[in-house]
Design goal:
Layout (H helix, E strand, L loop, with lengths): L1 E4 L4 E4 L7 E6 L10 H19 L3 E6 L6 H10 L3 H18 L15 H13 L3 E4 L2 E4 L36 E6 L14 E3 L1 H13 L3 E7 L3 H16 L4 E7 L2 E3 L2 E2 L10 H7 L2 H8 L8 E2 L2 H24 L12 H22 L4 H21 L8 H18 L18
Protein backbone atom coordinates (compact mmCIF):
# COMPACT_ATOMS: atom_id res chain seq x y z
CA UNK A 1 0.00 0.00 0.00
CA UNK A 2 1.31 3.42 -0.98
CA UNK A 3 0.06 6.73 0.41
CA UNK A 4 0.78 10.23 -0.86
CA UNK A 5 2.39 11.97 2.10
CA UNK A 6 1.91 15.75 2.11
CA UNK A 7 4.99 16.05 4.30
CA UNK A 8 7.31 14.58 1.66
CA UNK A 9 5.23 15.40 -1.44
CA UNK A 10 5.48 11.84 -2.74
CA UNK A 11 3.86 8.44 -2.46
CA UNK A 12 5.40 6.25 0.21
CA UNK A 13 4.91 2.66 1.23
CA UNK A 14 2.65 2.52 4.25
CA UNK A 15 4.36 0.89 7.22
CA UNK A 16 2.67 1.51 10.60
CA UNK A 17 4.69 1.93 13.75
CA UNK A 18 3.22 -1.23 15.22
CA UNK A 19 2.66 -4.16 12.90
CA UNK A 20 -1.01 -4.80 12.22
CA UNK A 21 -2.20 -1.68 14.05
CA UNK A 22 -2.91 1.85 12.82
CA UNK A 23 -3.21 4.99 14.92
CA UNK A 24 -5.17 7.55 12.91
CA UNK A 25 -6.28 11.08 13.76
CA UNK A 26 -8.76 12.95 11.61
CA UNK A 27 -9.58 16.61 12.18
CA UNK A 28 -13.29 16.86 12.87
CA UNK A 29 -15.77 19.73 12.83
CA UNK A 30 -15.71 23.08 14.56
CA UNK A 31 -19.29 23.02 15.74
CA UNK A 32 -20.70 26.49 15.18
CA UNK A 33 -23.03 25.42 12.35
CA UNK A 34 -24.27 22.34 10.53
CA UNK A 35 -21.66 20.80 8.28
CA UNK A 36 -21.93 21.14 4.50
CA UNK A 37 -21.30 18.74 1.65
CA UNK A 38 -17.78 20.14 1.16
CA UNK A 39 -16.92 19.28 4.77
CA UNK A 40 -18.51 15.90 4.19
CA UNK A 41 -15.93 15.01 1.55
CA UNK A 42 -13.15 15.19 4.14
CA UNK A 43 -15.06 13.41 6.91
CA UNK A 44 -16.24 10.72 4.48
CA UNK A 45 -12.77 10.07 3.13
CA UNK A 46 -11.38 9.44 6.61
CA UNK A 47 -14.20 6.93 7.04
CA UNK A 48 -13.18 5.16 3.81
CA UNK A 49 -9.49 5.06 4.80
CA UNK A 50 -10.45 3.40 8.05
CA UNK A 51 -12.80 0.93 6.30
CA UNK A 52 -10.14 -0.06 3.78
CA UNK A 53 -7.43 -0.50 6.40
CA UNK A 54 -9.78 -2.77 8.32
CA UNK A 55 -10.59 -4.63 5.08
CA UNK A 56 -6.84 -5.21 4.76
CA UNK A 57 -6.75 -6.69 8.24
CA UNK A 58 -5.41 -3.78 10.29
CA UNK A 59 -6.69 -2.96 13.74
CA UNK A 60 -7.48 0.74 13.41
CA UNK A 61 -7.91 3.22 16.22
CA UNK A 62 -9.51 6.31 14.70
CA UNK A 63 -9.71 9.49 16.74
CA UNK A 64 -11.79 12.34 15.35
CA UNK A 65 -12.02 15.44 17.50
CA UNK A 66 -14.86 17.86 17.94
CA UNK A 67 -13.71 21.46 18.37
CA UNK A 68 -16.35 22.78 20.75
CA UNK A 69 -14.62 25.98 21.90
CA UNK A 70 -13.14 28.37 19.37
CA UNK A 71 -13.36 31.96 18.11
CA UNK A 72 -15.95 31.05 15.47
CA UNK A 73 -18.19 29.37 18.03
CA UNK A 74 -18.04 32.40 20.31
CA UNK A 75 -18.74 34.78 17.41
CA UNK A 76 -21.76 32.75 16.26
CA UNK A 77 -23.09 32.47 19.81
CA UNK A 78 -22.83 36.24 20.25
CA UNK A 79 -24.70 36.78 16.98
CA UNK A 80 -27.51 34.50 18.17
CA UNK A 81 -27.46 35.69 21.76
CA UNK A 82 -26.69 32.18 23.04
CA UNK A 83 -24.25 30.64 25.48
CA UNK A 84 -21.26 29.43 23.44
CA UNK A 85 -21.01 26.04 25.15
CA UNK A 86 -24.71 25.39 24.71
CA UNK A 87 -24.41 26.26 21.03
CA UNK A 88 -21.45 23.96 20.48
CA UNK A 89 -23.13 21.10 22.37
CA UNK A 90 -26.23 21.25 20.19
CA UNK A 91 -24.26 21.49 16.96
CA UNK A 92 -22.04 18.61 18.14
CA UNK A 93 -25.13 16.44 18.47
CA UNK A 94 -26.35 17.61 15.06
CA UNK A 95 -22.98 16.72 13.50
CA UNK A 96 -23.01 13.20 14.90
CA UNK A 97 -26.57 12.67 13.70
CA UNK A 98 -25.97 14.00 10.19
CA UNK A 99 -22.69 12.08 9.84
CA UNK A 100 -24.49 8.91 10.87
CA UNK A 101 -27.16 9.45 8.24
CA UNK A 102 -24.41 9.74 5.64
CA UNK A 103 -23.10 6.36 6.74
CA UNK A 104 -19.97 7.71 8.41
CA UNK A 105 -19.15 5.27 11.18
CA UNK A 106 -18.44 6.83 14.58
CA UNK A 107 -14.75 7.19 15.38
CA UNK A 108 -13.36 4.86 18.04
CA UNK A 109 -12.76 7.95 20.15
CA UNK A 110 -14.54 11.28 19.58
CA UNK A 111 -12.90 13.70 22.04
CA UNK A 112 -14.10 17.25 22.65
CA UNK A 113 -11.75 20.09 23.39
CA UNK A 114 -13.66 21.23 26.48
CA UNK A 115 -13.12 17.77 28.00
CA UNK A 116 -9.34 18.05 27.65
CA UNK A 117 -8.52 21.39 29.27
CA UNK A 118 -6.21 19.72 31.81
CA UNK A 119 -4.20 17.97 29.08
CA UNK A 120 -4.06 21.17 27.03
CA UNK A 121 -2.69 23.17 29.99
CA UNK A 122 -0.09 20.47 30.68
CA UNK A 123 1.06 20.57 27.05
CA UNK A 124 1.41 24.35 27.14
CA UNK A 125 3.46 24.05 30.32
CA UNK A 126 5.74 21.59 28.52
CA UNK A 127 6.25 24.14 25.76
CA UNK A 128 7.03 26.81 28.34
CA UNK A 129 9.64 24.56 29.91
CA UNK A 130 11.22 24.09 26.45
CA UNK A 131 11.50 27.85 25.99
CA UNK A 132 9.18 28.08 22.97
CA UNK A 133 6.21 29.77 24.64
CA UNK A 134 5.94 33.31 25.98
CA UNK A 135 3.21 35.14 27.88
CA UNK A 136 1.83 38.62 27.23
CA UNK A 137 -0.92 39.90 29.53
CA UNK A 138 -2.37 36.46 30.19
CA UNK A 139 -2.10 35.28 26.58
CA UNK A 140 0.43 32.56 25.77
CA UNK A 141 2.03 32.44 22.31
CA UNK A 142 4.18 29.89 20.52
CA UNK A 143 7.48 31.33 19.22
CA UNK A 144 7.82 29.77 15.75
CA UNK A 145 11.43 30.94 15.43
CA UNK A 146 12.36 28.44 18.14
CA UNK A 147 11.38 25.59 15.79
CA UNK A 148 13.80 25.61 12.83
CA UNK A 149 11.65 23.18 10.82
CA UNK A 150 8.59 25.41 10.88
CA UNK A 151 7.06 25.32 7.41
CA UNK A 152 8.18 21.79 6.53
CA UNK A 153 4.63 20.56 5.93
CA UNK A 154 3.26 23.47 3.89
CA UNK A 155 6.55 24.58 2.34
CA UNK A 156 5.86 28.18 3.35
CA UNK A 157 8.77 30.41 4.25
CA UNK A 158 8.78 33.46 6.47
CA UNK A 159 8.78 35.67 3.38
CA UNK A 160 5.74 34.18 1.69
CA UNK A 161 3.68 33.19 4.73
CA UNK A 162 0.32 34.84 5.04
CA UNK A 163 -2.01 34.90 7.99
CA UNK A 164 -4.22 31.83 8.09
CA UNK A 165 -7.96 32.00 8.42
CA UNK A 166 -7.84 31.90 12.21
CA UNK A 167 -4.55 33.76 12.77
CA UNK A 168 -5.23 37.25 14.04
CA UNK A 169 -2.74 40.08 13.52
CA UNK A 170 -1.42 40.99 16.95
CA UNK A 171 1.36 43.51 17.55
CA UNK A 172 2.26 41.77 20.80
CA UNK A 173 3.64 38.81 18.85
CA UNK A 174 7.37 38.53 18.31
CA UNK A 175 6.68 37.20 14.81
CA UNK A 176 3.42 37.47 12.82
CA UNK A 177 3.47 33.68 12.46
CA UNK A 178 3.41 33.13 16.23
CA UNK A 179 0.11 31.63 17.33
CA UNK A 180 -1.94 31.56 20.50
CA UNK A 181 -1.70 28.60 22.84
CA UNK A 182 -3.87 30.17 25.55
CA UNK A 183 -6.19 33.18 25.31
CA UNK A 184 -7.00 35.31 28.33
CA UNK A 185 -10.64 35.54 29.35
CA UNK A 186 -12.87 38.20 27.83
CA UNK A 187 -16.25 39.24 29.21
CA UNK A 188 -19.01 36.79 28.39
CA UNK A 189 -16.72 34.08 27.00
CA UNK A 190 -16.29 30.56 28.41
CA UNK A 191 -13.23 30.37 30.62
CA UNK A 192 -11.16 27.97 32.69
CA UNK A 193 -8.56 28.46 35.41
CA UNK A 194 -4.93 28.17 34.34
CA UNK A 195 -1.43 29.13 35.52
CA UNK A 196 -1.74 32.24 33.30
CA UNK A 197 -5.12 33.29 34.65
CA UNK A 198 -8.63 32.54 33.46
CA UNK A 199 -8.97 31.90 29.76
CA UNK A 200 -9.43 29.27 27.07
CA UNK A 201 -7.19 27.26 24.73
CA UNK A 202 -6.11 28.25 21.24
CA UNK A 203 -7.38 26.16 18.35
CA UNK A 204 -4.13 24.42 17.34
CA UNK A 205 -3.11 23.21 20.79
CA UNK A 206 -6.48 21.50 21.21
CA UNK A 207 -5.81 18.99 18.43
CA UNK A 208 -2.25 18.22 19.56
CA UNK A 209 -3.41 17.55 23.09
CA UNK A 210 -6.34 15.36 22.06
CA UNK A 211 -4.34 13.41 19.47
CA UNK A 212 -1.46 12.61 21.80
CA UNK A 213 -3.72 11.89 24.77
CA UNK A 214 -5.48 9.11 22.89
CA UNK A 215 -2.89 7.91 20.36
CA UNK A 216 0.51 8.63 21.90
CA UNK A 217 3.41 10.81 20.83
CA UNK A 218 3.49 9.62 17.21
CA UNK A 219 0.51 8.98 14.93
CA UNK A 220 0.59 6.74 11.89
CA UNK A 221 -1.84 8.86 9.87
CA UNK A 222 -3.11 12.40 10.32
CA UNK A 223 -5.89 13.37 7.91
CA UNK A 224 -7.87 16.52 7.23
CA UNK A 225 -9.02 19.00 4.63
CA UNK A 226 -6.53 20.75 2.37
CA UNK A 227 -7.38 24.07 4.00
CA UNK A 228 -5.93 22.80 7.30
CA UNK A 229 -2.43 22.19 5.95
CA UNK A 230 -1.52 25.74 6.94
CA UNK A 231 -1.61 27.04 9.56
CA UNK A 232 -3.40 24.38 11.59
CA UNK A 233 -1.41 21.26 10.79
CA UNK A 234 1.85 23.19 10.50
CA UNK A 235 1.28 24.49 14.01
CA UNK A 236 0.31 21.07 15.33
CA UNK A 237 3.66 19.73 14.15
CA UNK A 238 5.62 22.61 15.66
CA UNK A 239 4.12 22.40 19.13
CA UNK A 240 3.89 18.60 19.31
CA UNK A 241 7.41 17.81 18.12
CA UNK A 242 9.02 20.37 20.42
CA UNK A 243 7.03 19.02 23.38
CA UNK A 244 7.89 15.35 22.80
CA UNK A 245 11.05 15.34 20.71
CA UNK A 246 9.34 12.78 18.46
CA UNK A 247 7.81 12.83 14.98
CA UNK A 248 4.18 13.86 15.43
CA UNK A 249 2.64 12.11 12.41
CA UNK A 250 4.33 9.87 9.85
CA UNK A 251 1.79 10.20 7.00
CA UNK A 252 -0.20 13.36 6.32
CA UNK A 253 -3.28 13.07 4.10
CA UNK A 254 -5.13 16.15 2.81
CA UNK A 255 -8.42 16.07 0.95
CA UNK A 256 -8.97 18.58 -1.87
CA UNK A 257 -11.83 21.06 -1.95
CA UNK A 258 -15.31 20.48 -3.23
CA UNK A 259 -16.08 23.30 -5.66
CA UNK A 260 -19.30 24.88 -6.82
CA UNK A 261 -19.34 27.05 -9.94
CA UNK A 262 -15.56 26.74 -10.09
CA UNK A 263 -14.89 28.14 -6.61
CA UNK A 264 -14.23 26.46 -3.27
CA UNK A 265 -17.38 25.61 -1.38
CA UNK A 266 -17.27 27.25 2.03
CA UNK A 267 -19.28 29.01 4.68
CA UNK A 268 -17.28 32.21 4.37
CA UNK A 269 -18.49 32.58 0.78
CA UNK A 270 -22.03 31.39 1.58
CA UNK A 271 -21.94 29.05 -1.43
CA UNK A 272 -22.49 25.79 0.38
CA UNK A 273 -25.17 23.12 0.78
CA UNK A 274 -25.77 21.66 4.21
CA UNK A 275 -25.42 17.89 4.18
CA UNK A 276 -28.79 17.61 5.92
CA UNK A 277 -30.40 19.48 3.03
CA UNK A 278 -28.61 17.33 0.47
CA UNK A 279 -29.89 14.22 2.27
CA UNK A 280 -33.46 15.44 1.83
CA UNK A 281 -32.98 15.27 -1.95
CA UNK A 282 -30.53 12.39 -2.40
CA UNK A 283 -29.95 9.03 -0.74
CA UNK A 284 -26.78 8.83 1.36
CA UNK A 285 -25.30 6.14 -0.90
CA UNK A 286 -25.62 8.46 -3.91
CA UNK A 287 -23.89 11.30 -2.07
CA UNK A 288 -21.10 8.96 -0.97
CA UNK A 289 -20.70 7.65 -4.54
CA UNK A 290 -20.51 11.21 -5.87
CA UNK A 291 -17.96 12.35 -3.28
CA UNK A 292 -15.79 9.30 -4.00
CA UNK A 293 -16.05 9.61 -7.79
CA UNK A 294 -12.84 11.66 -8.00
CA UNK A 295 -9.48 10.98 -6.39
CA UNK A 296 -9.34 12.66 -3.00
CA UNK A 297 -6.43 14.91 -3.99
CA UNK A 298 -8.36 16.20 -7.01
CA UNK A 299 -10.86 19.06 -6.60
CA UNK A 300 -14.41 17.89 -7.30
CA UNK A 301 -17.16 20.04 -8.82
CA UNK A 302 -20.62 19.80 -7.32
CA UNK A 303 -23.60 19.68 -9.61
CA UNK A 304 -26.99 18.00 -9.51
CA UNK A 305 -26.43 16.11 -12.77
CA UNK A 306 -23.42 14.31 -11.32
CA UNK A 307 -25.40 13.46 -8.21
CA UNK A 308 -28.20 12.05 -10.38
CA UNK A 309 -25.63 9.96 -12.28
CA UNK A 310 -24.25 8.72 -8.97
CA UNK A 311 -27.75 7.72 -7.82
CA UNK A 312 -28.27 5.75 -11.04
CA UNK A 313 -24.91 4.00 -10.66
CA UNK A 314 -25.73 3.01 -7.08
CA UNK A 315 -29.13 1.65 -8.12
CA UNK A 316 -27.53 -0.51 -10.80
CA UNK A 317 -25.07 -1.95 -8.30
CA UNK A 318 -27.77 -2.56 -5.72
CA UNK A 319 -30.09 -4.19 -8.28
CA UNK A 320 -27.29 -6.54 -9.25
CA UNK A 321 -26.64 -7.38 -5.62
CA UNK A 322 -30.33 -8.01 -4.98
CA UNK A 323 -30.52 -10.36 -7.96
CA UNK A 324 -27.53 -12.31 -6.70
CA UNK A 325 -29.11 -12.55 -3.25
CA UNK A 326 -32.38 -13.81 -4.73
CA UNK A 327 -30.76 -16.45 -6.90
CA UNK A 328 -28.05 -17.50 -4.49
CA UNK A 329 -28.31 -20.63 -2.41
CA UNK A 330 -26.46 -22.81 0.04
CA UNK A 331 -23.72 -25.17 -0.87
CA UNK A 332 -19.97 -25.49 -0.99
CA UNK A 333 -18.09 -23.80 -3.81
CA UNK A 334 -15.83 -26.28 -5.55
CA UNK A 335 -14.00 -24.43 -8.36
CA UNK A 336 -12.66 -27.70 -9.75
CA UNK A 337 -16.22 -28.76 -10.59
CA UNK A 338 -17.22 -25.52 -12.32
CA UNK A 339 -18.39 -25.53 -15.89
CA UNK A 340 -16.42 -23.38 -18.29
CA UNK A 341 -18.85 -20.45 -17.98
CA UNK A 342 -18.90 -20.69 -14.19
CA UNK A 343 -15.13 -20.89 -14.09
CA UNK A 344 -14.97 -17.74 -16.23
CA UNK A 345 -17.20 -15.80 -13.83
CA UNK A 346 -15.30 -17.13 -10.81
CA UNK A 347 -12.02 -15.97 -12.34
CA UNK A 348 -13.54 -12.56 -13.07
CA UNK A 349 -14.57 -12.31 -9.42
CA UNK A 350 -11.03 -13.02 -8.27
CA UNK A 351 -9.67 -10.55 -10.80
CA UNK A 352 -12.12 -7.86 -9.66
CA UNK A 353 -10.92 -8.33 -6.08
CA UNK A 354 -7.31 -8.01 -7.16
CA UNK A 355 -7.99 -4.89 -9.23
CA UNK A 356 -10.00 -3.32 -6.42
CA UNK A 357 -7.15 -3.81 -3.98
CA UNK A 358 -4.56 -2.62 -6.48
CA UNK A 359 -6.27 0.72 -7.04
CA UNK A 360 -7.10 1.23 -3.38
CA UNK A 361 -3.52 0.31 -2.44
CA UNK A 362 -2.43 3.10 -4.80
CA UNK A 363 -3.23 6.06 -2.54
CA UNK A 364 -6.88 5.11 -1.96
CA UNK A 365 -8.04 5.65 -5.55
CA UNK A 366 -11.78 5.46 -4.94
CA UNK A 367 -12.63 6.69 -8.43
CA UNK A 368 -10.85 3.70 -9.96
CA UNK A 369 -12.39 1.40 -7.35
CA UNK A 370 -15.87 2.50 -8.41
CA UNK A 371 -14.83 1.73 -11.98
CA UNK A 372 -13.82 -1.80 -10.96
CA UNK A 373 -17.22 -2.32 -9.34
CA UNK A 374 -19.05 -1.04 -12.43
CA UNK A 375 -17.11 -3.36 -14.73
CA UNK A 376 -17.70 -6.33 -12.43
CA UNK A 377 -21.43 -5.55 -12.30
CA UNK A 378 -21.60 -5.54 -16.10
CA UNK A 379 -19.81 -8.90 -16.26
CA UNK A 380 -22.20 -10.38 -13.70
CA UNK A 381 -25.25 -9.13 -15.60
CA UNK A 382 -23.92 -10.61 -18.83
CA UNK A 383 -23.46 -13.97 -17.11
CA UNK A 384 -26.96 -13.86 -15.61
CA UNK A 385 -28.56 -13.02 -18.94
CA UNK A 386 -26.69 -15.71 -20.86
CA UNK A 387 -27.25 -18.47 -18.26
CA UNK A 388 -30.76 -17.76 -17.05
CA UNK A 389 -31.99 -21.30 -17.77
CA UNK A 390 -29.31 -23.01 -15.65
CA UNK A 391 -28.74 -20.70 -12.73
CA UNK A 392 -30.06 -23.26 -10.25
CA UNK A 393 -26.90 -25.27 -10.92
CA UNK A 394 -24.54 -22.50 -9.82
CA UNK A 395 -26.31 -20.78 -6.93
CA UNK A 396 -23.41 -21.29 -4.44
CA UNK A 397 -21.17 -19.39 -6.84
CA UNK A 398 -23.64 -16.50 -6.88
CA UNK A 399 -23.55 -16.36 -3.08
CA UNK A 400 -19.77 -16.03 -3.19
CA UNK A 401 -20.00 -13.33 -5.84
CA UNK A 402 -22.56 -11.41 -3.81
CA UNK A 403 -20.32 -11.52 -0.73
CA UNK A 404 -17.35 -10.31 -2.75
CA UNK A 405 -19.35 -7.41 -4.13
CA UNK A 406 -20.62 -6.61 -0.64
CA UNK A 407 -17.07 -6.53 0.72
CA UNK A 408 -15.79 -4.14 -1.94
CA UNK A 409 -18.84 -1.90 -1.82
CA UNK A 410 -18.69 -2.00 1.97
CA UNK A 411 -15.29 -0.30 1.91
CA UNK A 412 -16.93 2.59 0.05
CA UNK A 413 -20.14 2.44 2.07
CA UNK A 414 -22.54 2.36 -0.88
CA UNK A 415 -24.57 -0.71 0.15
CA UNK A 416 -25.87 0.67 3.41
CA UNK A 417 -29.29 2.02 2.50
CA UNK A 418 -30.89 0.23 5.44
CA UNK A 419 -28.27 1.32 7.96
CA UNK A 420 -27.73 4.53 9.89
CA UNK A 421 -31.23 5.77 9.08
CA UNK A 422 -32.49 7.64 12.11
CA UNK A 423 -36.11 8.65 12.71
CA UNK A 424 -35.20 10.91 15.61
CA UNK A 425 -35.25 14.63 15.20
CA UNK A 426 -32.20 16.85 15.14
CA UNK A 427 -31.77 19.33 18.00
CA UNK A 428 -33.03 22.77 17.12
CA UNK A 429 -30.61 25.68 17.50
CA UNK A 430 -32.63 28.50 19.03
Amino acid sequence: MRIYNTLTRRKEEFVPLEEGKVRMYSCGPTVYDYFHIGNARTFLFSDVIRRYLEYKGYEVTLVQNITDIDDKIIQRANELGLDALRLSKEYSEAYLMDAGKLGIRPANIQPRATEHIREIIQLIQQLESKGVAYTVNGDVFYDVNQFPEYGKLSGRTREDVRSGERVAIDERKRDPRDFALWKSAKPGEPKWDSPWGEGRPGWHIECSAMAMTHLGKTLDIHAGGGDLEFPHHENEIAQSEVATGETFARYWIHVAFLRINGTKMGKSDRNFIYIRDALKQHRPEAIRYFLLSAHYRTPLDYNTDRLADAASAVRRLQNCRDTLARLGGEGEIIPEEFSDVDRKLYDRMRLAQQEFEQVMDDDFNTAAALGVLATFRAQINTYLAENESRLHESTPLLVSIEKTMQQMAGVLGIFEEDKNQSTSTTPDIV
